[in-house]
């Protein structure tokens, strides 16, 4: 059992009512870890050690919590235990779509890069896109398995129980490249004395590690976040320095030097030869460091681009359907907690000479962009505008009653219908509604669509409000 608590009386006195609730002692918290992921975390002689262990000591002290370790034999077993409720918490893991099905996550508290390692002689790899036909080894249950399967389905994967076992198989030639955590991989390479294994590139995305909490114990997330936010930066730096033993390793060939030493027995010539090789190695190190820096910049830019594309429509630049649904769900949740109402506006563009067939996408691009611009110029900064589907746009108005939203909808209708590109060729219908108590997004959307259909039945060019 890991029990770590301290008096936080003075902090309680300074905190507000909501913060004071975070200091209330909770029930015993059971947790599982990856038993073979040193130095991040590991089990040695039945004791939890590593970076996550030190963070848990700090969190237990700040939040007055008690943690009890449930030992497991592998990372996959730890995931199964927390999913089954045999342990409540996993202290150090990445978020993923699959894990969100059964876990709630705290805010991240530790970040670390992932790297690609291969035998000496393998060229530098530009992330997964540079792997080619090589087989990639990866630990079963790691977030990277899900990431590669979704974004690089052509890559062949070989799963293994731990990074240490994977490095042994890599050294034996059972596969070509392995992906793993930088600090852990470096430690195992040194411990196993694998002199012919090198780091050959970075693997996206980087680890952003947080607590994962079984959804049945979701109330623990607030307590963990409370403690994480109060860990001093100086302590974070101390922990990182204590466990960071990463060294860049390069293969060196001393054959020429040895032959020169045997053939040439004059000390001066040996010294000149040595200086020449040292200079060459320094140039190689500088070159590799520059390549790594370029890789990091490229990965960062790609992540930013992917983040933007995942939430935006490619034609209009507005938010897309998925992002709008997410924001609407957040607004519904806020309404249920604080009773702050919201309004939804649906605007639909219809060709004036519609013959029952959909228009070509290319002929609609310019009108769609015009509507998007008019929406952005008309709405407030707090409003959320999206192209929901086809010629349909949705405006979410947070904390806005239907009367105020009606003024905005009228102004938007006037701007759109008066534009020269839309006046003669398109008709505009607008429906809107105010969020009601105990209403889900699908119900809210259905009421608003009925108002849109009513606007069409009244001949377009008007705003209809759902009852």
What is the secondary structure topology, with strand pairs?
Blueprint: E1 2-4, H1 9-14, H2 17-22, E2 29-31, E3 36-37, E4 41-44, E5 47-49, H3 51-63, E6 65-69, H4 75-84, E7 89-93, E8 103-105, E9 110-119, E10 135-139, H5 143-151, E11 156-160, H6 163-171, E12 177-181, H7 182-192, E13 197-214, H8 220-228, H9 233-243, H10 255-263, H11 267-311, H12 321-338, E14 342-351, H13 361-378, E15 384-389, E16 392-398, H14 402-417, H15 420-423, E17 426-434, H16 441-457, E18 463-465
Parallel strand pairs: 2-6, 10-11, 10-12, 17-18
Antiparallel strand pairs: 1-6, 3-4, 4-5, 7-13, 8-13, 9-12, 9-13, 14-16, 14-17, 15-16
Helix pairs in contact: 3-8, 6-7, 13-14
Report what the structure shows.
- With 467 residues, this protein is of the alpha+beta class.
- The chain has helices at residues 9-14, 17-22, 51-63, 75-84, 143-151, 163-171, 182-192, 220-228, 233-243, 255-263, 267-311, 321-338, 361-378, 402-417, 420-423, 441-457; strands at residues 2-4, 29-31, 36-37, 41-44, 47-49, 65-69, 89-93, 103-105, 110-119, 135-139, 156-160, 177-181, 197-214, 342-351, 384-389, 392-398, 426-434, 463-465.
- Strands 7, 8, 9, 10, 11, 12 and 13 form a seven-stranded mixed β-sheet that branches.
- A hairpin with a 3-residue loop joins strand 3 and strand 4.
- Helix 3 (51-63) packs across helix 8 (220-228) and helix 6 (163-171) packs across helix 7 (182-192).
- The protein is globular.
- It starts with a strand and ends with a strand.
- 33% of the residues are buried.
- Mean pLDDT is 85; it is low at 1-23 and 246-254.
């Amino acid at each position: 059992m890991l029990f770590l608590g301290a008096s936080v009386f003075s902090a309680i006195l300074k905190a507000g009512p909501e913060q004071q609730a975070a200091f209330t002692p909770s029930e015993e918290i059971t947790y599982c870890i990856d038993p073979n992921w040193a130095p991040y975390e590991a089990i040695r002689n039945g004791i939890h050690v590593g970076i996550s262990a030190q963070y848990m000591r700090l969190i237990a002290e700040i939040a007055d919590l008690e943690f009890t370790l449930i030992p497991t034999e592998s990372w996959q077993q730890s995931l199964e235990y927390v999913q089954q409720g045999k342990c409540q918490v996993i202290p150090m893991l990445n978020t993923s779509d699959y894990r969100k099905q059964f876990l709630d996550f705290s805010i991240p508290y530790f970040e670390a890069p992932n790297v690609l390692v291969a035998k000496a002689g393998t060229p530098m790899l530009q992330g997964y896109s540079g792997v080619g036909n090589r087989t990639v080894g990866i630990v079963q249950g790691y977030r990277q398995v899900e990431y590669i399967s979704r974004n690089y389905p052509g890559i062949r994967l070989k799963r293994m129980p731990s990074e240490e076992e994977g490095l042994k198989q890599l050294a034996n030639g059972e596969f070509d490249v392995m992906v793993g955590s930088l600090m852990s991989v470096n430690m195992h390479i040194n411990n196993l004395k694998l002199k012919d294994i090198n780091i050959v590139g970075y693997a996206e995305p980087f680890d952003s590690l947080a607590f994962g909490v079984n959804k049945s114990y979701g109330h623990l997330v607030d307590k963990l976040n409370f403690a994480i936010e109060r860990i001093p930066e100086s302590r974070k730096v101390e922990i990182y320095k204590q466990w960071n033993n990463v060294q860049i390793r390069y293969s060196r060939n001393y054959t020429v030097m040895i032959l020169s030493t045997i053939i040439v027995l004059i000390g001066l010539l040996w010294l000149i030869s040595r200086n020449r090789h040292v200079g060459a190695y320094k140039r190689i190190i500088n070159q590799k460091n520059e390549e790594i820096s370029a890789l990091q910049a490229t990965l960062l830019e790609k992540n930013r681009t992917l983040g933007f594309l995942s939430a935006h429509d490619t034609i209009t630049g507005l938010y897309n359907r998925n992002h709008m649904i997410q924001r609407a769900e957040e607004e519904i949740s806020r309404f249920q907690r604080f009773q702050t109402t919201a309004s939804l506006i649906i605007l639909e563009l219809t060709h004036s000479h519609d013959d029952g067939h959909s228009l070509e996408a290319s002929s609609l691009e310019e009108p769609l962009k015009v509507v998007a611009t008019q929406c952005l110029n008309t709405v407030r900064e707090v409003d959320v505008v999206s192209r929901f589907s086809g010629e349909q746009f949705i405006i979410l108005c947070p904390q806005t009653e239907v009367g105020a939203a009606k003024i905005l909808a009228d102004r938007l209708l006037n701007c759109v219908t008066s534009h020269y590109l839309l006046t003669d060729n398109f008709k505009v219908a607008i429906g809107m509604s105010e969020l009601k108590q105990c209403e889900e997004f699908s119900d809210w959307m259905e009421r608003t669509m009925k108002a849109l259909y009513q606007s069409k039945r009244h001949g377009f060019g008007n705003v209809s409000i759902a009852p």
